[in-house]
Specification:
Order of helices and strands: HHHHHHHHHHHHHH
Largest sheet: none
Structural class: mainly alpha
Organism: Polaromonas vacuolata
CATH architecture of the largest domain: Orthogonal Bundle
Helix content: 55-70%
GO molecular function: geranylgeranyl diphosphate synthase activity; lyase activity; squalene synthase [NAD(P)H] activity
InterPro entries: HSQ_synthase_HpnC (IPR017827), Isoprenoid_synthase_dom_sf (IPR008949), Squ/phyt_synthse (IPR002060), Trans_IPPS_bact-type (IPR044843), Trans_IPPS_HH (IPR033904)
Mean pLDDT: 88
Low-confidence stretches: 1-25
CATH topology of the largest domain: Farnesyl Diphosphate Synthase
Radius of gyration: 19 Å
Strand content: under 5%
Enzyme class: lyase
Shape: globular
CATH class of the largest domain: Mainly Alpha
Distance between the termini: 32 Å
Protein name: Hydroxysqualene synthase
């Protein structure tokens, strides 16, 4: 399962490695919101593990996700839930009640995790964006909800940022996802660049595959720039967190460009030294 990620940003700045790009209660988050962010993170991380970790069959994963969904519904209705994930749903119940979290966003995340169990190809940008709408965008909207930012423009900009982060992560991770059978590059994009499935499965770096990755990276980068003005609408330290998020995604895009888009063979990563550059660029925003 490809997680809802800011490519390696938290690993570089906060040291978080698993489900690494959810901004988990960093020092930039107000202290009173950290328990809520941890509860949402725990919910998403556990569902992601059910969908992706271990050796369970697709049928077993889907059955577990169904049980997880049932516990979420019980939690949201202040009804008893199972003991299996009591450490997840006990704090989440408090957060749902305290902040009136939109249940639909949590359900969207589960829908994306369920889809990732069974779907490994995407026909076009629209289909991939629908996946991002459920796998990535709810994270941003949940965080904005905690900060009390609910206007339509801000939500739209948040969606652009979150989808862009997800897409940049896809193009960063081609050398890892494709051997696992998942190709997130839209199929109509392969066709228009003269690349077929066999070439992708072979991780063949050619002029055509380079142009394919470059075109999709340009799409994601454009989405990020469309969403970037949101950083000026989010109050206080959260706005600075978001600046680092945006700059982290753009920095990974730069690193992909620097290796001539050869992410079929190499996975560029942010290093600790990139942190200072991200802070400087965040200040310039």
């Amino acid at each position: 399962m490809n997680k809802v990620r800011q490519p390696d940003l938290n690993q570089a700045i906060h040291g978080v490695e698993h489900y690494e790009n959810f901004p988990v209660a960093s020092l930039l988050c107000p202290a009173h919101l950290r328990p809520a962010i941890r509860a949402i993170y725990g919910f998403a991380r556990t569902a992601d593990d059910i969908a992706d970790e271990g050796n369970a069959s697709p049928e077993q994963r889907l059955a577990q996700l169904t049980a997880y969904r049932e516990d979420l519904m019980a939690c949201a209705a202040n009804q008893p839930f199972s003991e299996q994930w009591i450490n997840i749903f006990t704090p989440l119940a408090t957060v749902i009640n305290k902040f009136s979290l939109p249940l639909s966003l949590l359900l969207d995340l589960l829908s994306a995790f369920e889809q990732d169990v069974v779907k490994t190809r995407y026909a076009d940008q629209a289909e991939l964006l629908d996946y991002c709408r459920r796998s990535a965008n709810p994270v941003g909207r949940l965080l904005l909800h905690l900060y009390g930012v609910t206007d339509a423009l801000s939500l739209s900009q948040s969606d652009c940022i979150c989808s862009a982060l997800q897409l940049i992560n896809f193009w960063q991770d081609l050398s890892q996802d494709i051997p696992r059978g998942r190709i997130y590059l839209p199929k109509d994009s392969w066709d228009s660049h003269g690349v077929d499935q066999e070439q992708l499965l072979a991780l063949a770096v050619t002029s055509a595959s380079t142009q394919l990755v470059a075109a999709n990276l340009a799409w994601a980068t454009d989405l990020m720039r469309r969403g970037a003005p949101l950083v000026k609408s989010v109050p206080g330290r959260a706005g600075w967190e978001l600046r680092l998020v945006v700059q982290g995604g753009l920095r990974i895009a730069e690193k992909i460009q620097q290796i001539n888009y050869a992410t079929l063979k190499h996975r560029p990563k942010l290093k600790t030294k990139d942190g200072l550059l991200l802070v400087w660029r965040a200040l310039l925003m």
